[in-house]
Design goal:
This protein is mostly helical and about 180 residues long. It is built from 10 helices and 3 strands, in the order βααββαααααααα. α5 runs antiparallel to α6 and α7 crosses α8. It is globular and about 55 Å long. The mean pLDDT is about 85.
Length: about 180
């Protein structure tokens, strides 16, 4: 099978790249942990999102934050007005807590994003880009996920990290042990 180099991949192509069963990729999409778009009756995922899972350039904390915000993006697409109401309340509270400085700048950016197109909000919530990572560090979405949902996302994140871990070959292990 040849994998296309376009921005959108089929679920099967994403499964091959991730070395996950197709069902697991569909599950990640259904839970909102891997953003997707519908093209007819088929789902497509962004190559950047799949590659971010394969070769994370983010720290572990940033990846956790990304997974949580991907779940928030799923909730936002399902219930936009409820999520926006929570975010706006949190923005007001955060502005009172941080009346100036760097945090204020990012809170203003969130305010502009929330007033704009929904696609821009979803992009900010789900993108592995540095700008989005920094933006999410001043996130106004606390309380959108219940503690149980939050815990489930973090458990899924930990499980995905275990899935990607590879056992050391015996020769590599011997070499490491001799070096110690």
């Amino acid at each position: 099978m040849t994998i296309r180099t376009t921005d959108l991949l089929t679920i099967g192509e994403a499964a091959i790249l991730l070395r996950f069963p197709r069902r697991r990729v569909l599950d990640l999409c259904a839970r909102g942990l891997l953003p997707y778009v519908s093209v007819g009756s088929h789902r497509r995922v962004r190559r950047a999102d799949v590659e971010a899972l394969i070769h994370p350039v983010l720290t572990r904390a940033e990846l956790e934050q990304l997974w949580l915000h991907q779940a928030i993006a799923a909730r936002y697409t399902a219930q936009p007005s409820a999520v926006l109401a929570i975010a706006e309340i949190n923005l007001r509270r955060l502005r009172r807590l941080h009346p100036g400085g760097a945090e204020w700048e990012w809170l203003e950016r969130w305010e502009v994003l929330l007033a704009g197109e929904p696609a821009a909000v979803v992009e900010a919530l789900t993108s592995p880009a540095r700008y989005a990572v920094r933006l999410r560090s001043a996130s106004p979405f606390a309380g959108v996920l219940s503690e149980r949902e939050r815990r489930a996302v973090l458990d899924d994140f930990a499980e995905s990290r275990r899935d990607q871990a590879r056992p050391l070959r015996l020769t590599s292990l011997e070499r490491v042990m001799r070096a110690v």
